[in-house]
């Protein structure tokens, strides 16, 4: 049951990100182009599994995009808000599809598998 809830949580984050993206009338072409760009964080695995997990998890946690969403709203920075919402959508989509945060023991060893 907890694993299912984590997938549902990801779906809700993904849908909420889409909603707020649409409400701000941002470019859907930019959304499609940038949605998967955050997976570049997997390049950390070229160093080793520990570095890869840290870099991947920093990129795929909800914390950084949420902080940037707040900062973008406070500073009225539409470009930053657009990218942050795409980033949040990416992370929600990943969780919805079952891609979790990584443990340093291996790329396929995720928090969703441990639940």
From TrEMBL:
Name of one Pfam family that matches: DUF4260
Keywords: Membrane, Transmembrane, Transmembrane helix
Domain of life: Bacteria
Parts of the chain that traverse the membrane: 6-21, 28-47, 67-89
InterPro entries in the record: DUF4260 (IPR025356)
Protein's name in the database: DUF4260 domain-containing protein
């Amino acid at each position: 049951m907890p694993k299912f809830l984590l997938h549902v949580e990801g779906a809700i984050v993904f849908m909420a990100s889409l909603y707020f993206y649409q409400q701000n009338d941002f470019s859907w072409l930019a959304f499609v182009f940038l949605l998967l760009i955050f997976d570049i964080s997997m390049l950390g695995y070229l160093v080793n599994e520990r570095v890869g997990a840290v870099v991947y998890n920093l990129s795929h946690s909800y914390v950084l995009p949420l902080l940037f969403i707040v900062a973008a709203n406070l500073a009225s920075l539409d470009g930053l808000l657009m990218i942050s919402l795409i980033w949040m959508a990416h992370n929600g989509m990943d969780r919805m599809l079952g891609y979790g945060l990584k443990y340093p023991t291996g790329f396929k060893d995720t928090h969703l598998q441990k639940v």
